[in-house]
Design goal:
Elements (H helix, E strand, L loop, with lengths): L1 H30 L8 E2 L4 H40 L4 H51 L6 E7 L5 E8 L2 E7 L15 E4 L4 E2 L4 E2 L1 H21 L5 E2 L2 E2 L4 E4 L9 E2 L1 H9 L7 H15 E3 L2
Parallel strand pairs: 4-8, 4-9, 5-10, 9-11
Antiparallel strand pairs: 1-12, 2-3, 3-4, 5-6, 6-7
Length: 295
């Protein structure tokens, strides 16, 4: 009992802090209201930021869990040693050894889960930074009269990273951020070779961003047509922040691939395609769709 009391006393401040945070969070939910009831537009990478917060909470939980379980593993190891020295009955030793093994196993599992959440958080943060970089490029290109929406939620194809609308057209921007790694061939580590179907990175090939852009563009075109009563052509460029895209064969592919810096000039260089009245109707439809964030 003395050992258990020492362990509980050592972790009492941490337990108290955890309980206080949970209680305060629940109290605020019930007693406080936002200063305005109007919902906000979804910012760039909003879904990823929400997921990142969830991952951070899960990481802290599994870390605390691993610490507690590891502490009790050490406690039962100490008790087992004391029983051996005291020549205690065998069944006492068996119980302590069993508990020690159970706590060690649970500690290892909690540690692995914590590390998994850490790795998942790194990937989510990379995707979030990529979407923010593309949002900056869209803001820079807004001098052509375009309006941008971010993190548009759909009922079938997941979320759409960005949509830029203006007289020059409707552009669905699919963002893919990838870490640079050492090349396995003569290709530069920052280079991506695009043939209209595959993105050839220095360490692997990927066709999913191209297919995803096509699927999302089709969904958005149908959605806007239903909302506005007019056919809407959606162009789906894939943007790779920090990459240099070169082309294999012809360059006039149905789905364009480019980096964030090139995106600015690409949008500015488009000719007028949509009448102002239709642009306003499209913006109204997307504003209604994307304005769902609580203040």
């Amino acid at each position: 009992m003395r050992h258990i009391s020492v362990v509980l006393a050592a972790f009492a401040p941490l337990i108290g802090l955890t309980v206080a945070i949970i209680w305060e969070r629940e109290r605020r939910k019930k007693s406080e209201k936002p200063p305005q009831t109007e919902k906000l537009l979804r910012p760039p990478g909003y879904s990823l930021s929400v997921r990142f917060d969830e991952i951070a909470d899960a990481l802290v939980f599994h870390m605390l869990k691993a610490v507690f379980l590891g502490s009790f593993s050490g406690l039962f190891a100490l008790i087992t040693y004391s029983l051996l020295v005291a020549h205690a009955p065998a069944w006492w030793l068996a119980i302590c050894i069993l508990l020690f093994v159970l706590f060690v196993t649970a500690c290892v599992m909690a540690t692995r889960r914590a590390f998994g959440r850490f790795q998942e958080g790194r990937d989510i943060r990379l995707g979030l930074r990529g979407e923010q970089a593309v949002a900056e490029a869209l803001n820079e290109a807004a001098d052509n009269g375009s309006r941008s929406f971010h993190d548009l939620q759909t009922d079938k194809v997941g979320n759409i990273d960005h949509v830029a609308i203006g007289a020059r057209g409707v552009f669905l921007v699919e963002t893919k951020a990838r870490r640079r790694r050492a090349s396995r061939n003569a290709q530069a580590e920052h280079e991506v070779i695009y043939d209209g179907e595959f993105l050839q990175f220095p360490f692997y090939r990927d066709s999913m961003p191209i297919e995803q852009a096509k699927i999302n563009a089709k969904w958005l075109s149908n959605f806007l047509e239903k909302k506005t009563g007019e056919p809407v052509w959606v162009e789906p460029p894939v943007v790779l922040p920090g990459r240099y895209v070169t082309f294999s064969g012809k360059e006039n592919f149905p789905v364009k691939a480019m980096n964030a810096n090139y995106l600015v000039g690409y949008l500015r260089g488009q000719g007028q395609k949509i009448a102002p009245a239709q642009v306003r109707r499209i913006i109204t439809a997307l504003d209604e769709k994307c304005r769902d964030v609580e203040f």
